[in-house]
Amino acid sequence: MNHSLYAVHPNYTPINLRLAEEYFNTLPPGDISKQFYDGVQYRAVKGLFASYALNRFSQYGKLNSLYKFYPYQKIVKETKEELCEDWTSNIQLAAIVTGASWTFLYQYAKRGQVLSILREYGSVLKTHRLFRQYLYTLVLPFAIANEYTFVHYHDHIEQLWQVHANRLNKKDLSDPTGTQYPEELRAPRRDVFINKWH
Question: Could you tell me the mean pLDDT of each successive run of 10 residues in the chain, 198 residues long?
């Protein structure tokens, strides 16, 4: 007969796992989030050109940083997922537009004709009009798709970033409201001690 004894001692998962604090402690000195923690106030970039040049290209970086801090916070997680889905969809549409444009330009050129769009020769590199039509129909659809995606999410990401900065200004490193831990983190850990005497 097996007389093994199992002594199970559940350790209940705390209400707040403070995953944000764990990630914060891995950041290098001088990181913007550590600056917020030290009291630096966040101010959104003002002005049309400044907003475009300095702010637009940092949106994904901000969202990625938020996701590392709060990977299970509902709004942050859904925003990242939706932005990636929308960006992928818009880039795929841009690829279709470029492909269709190139097919049209090629078929038109095969007849010895070139659309009368743009000057016949470039003023700098002396490139032909047809080459520049191919180039622009490659670059513009992707640039527009990327810009359209981030314009749509810009204000929302800025609001999330402002909340993040305010939390750190208050030295709040707890996981925020709306955090939904996965089952493996929520389930109580069990330490099992086995008596092998039998």
Answer: 39 70 94 94 66 62 94 94 94 95 85 67 61 86 89 90 95 91 72 50
Tokens of 57: 């290209």
**DSSP strands (E only) in the chain:** 6-11, 189-194
Q: Determine the 3-state secondary structure of 40 from DSSP.
A: coil
d(CA 144, CA 95): 12
For residues 144 and 142, what is the distance between their CA atoms, to the nearest angstrom?
Answer: 5
Residue type at 142 in one-letter notation: F
Q: Tell me how far the alpha carbon of residue 134 is from its chain's centroid.
A: 31
pTM score of the predicted model: 0.72
Residue 71 per-residue DSSP state: T
Beta bridge partners of 7: 193
Cα–Cα distance, 44 to 161 (Å, whole number): 10
Cβ neighbours around 34 below 10 Å, total: 15
Question: How are beta strands 189-194 and 6-11 bridged, if at all?
Answer: antiparallel
Q: Is 104 helix (H, G, I), strand (E, B) or coil?
A: helix
